[in-house]
Amino acid sequence: MTKEQRHKCMASIRSKNTSPEMAIRRGLHKRGYRFRIHVKSLPGTPDIVLPRHKTAILVNGCFWHGHKNCRKFVLPQSNTNFWEAKIARNIHRDEITCAHLTALGWHVITVWECEVATNSLTQAALDRIGREIAESTLLRSTRSEMREKTRTEMKMEQEEIMRRQAALEAEIDRIYPLPAKIRQLSKTALSLSDYMEEED
Ligand SMILES: [Zn+2]
Questions:
Q1: Domain extent for 115
Q2: What average pLDDT values come out for the chain (200 residues) when binned by 10 residues?
Q3: CA of 116 to the centre of ligand 1 (A)
Q4: Which residues have CB less than 5 Å away from ligand 1 (the ion)?
Q5: 85: CA distance to ligand 1 center in Å?
Q6: Among 82, 68, 33, which residue's Cα sits nearest to residue 54?
Q7: Dihedral angle sign, alpha carbons of residues 24, 114, 46, 7
């Protein structure tokens, strides 16, 4: 890389609307997906966000984001340590972004620059995105079904607690029955009346 090329590369790392990103955006739009771009309110300002599908798409340059086993990712011969450290930092930042988004319940899809190198590759990448969105949607509905089941189980548990409580109260009534008190009272009354009778 010449100094100028390197400078151009440096400038492009944070840049948006890169050609791989535009290719994905055009493709998604054609396939009827609705999305928002460069969403600042989400961790890492994801490139493409599909709110309805709770999916965030990160479009990564292969060099800057250190695409493993990719031909486009070749460390420069000079200042190798510098580039290595810089790219390692980017990889780390991507991992953190992904972890934050996942923790917030977002499905994260990473698309690499080399995946959109040709039109047919781009179509394949869009197919993959479509599959992943469908799978995560299915997973989400299964999860909410599970939550529903848990709610039902909690209701049943609550009812079981109330049943046990009622049974316990009945047991207490049986051991310390009200009739006993009445018996006691009537006994007192009897003795009293006996006494009163005696008095009379
Ligand atoms: Zn790549």
A1: 3-146
A2: 62 68 97 95 94 95 93 89 91 92 94 96 98 91 79 81 77 64 51 44
A3: 9
A4: 62, 67, 70, 72, 112, 114
A5: 19
A6: 33
A7: negative
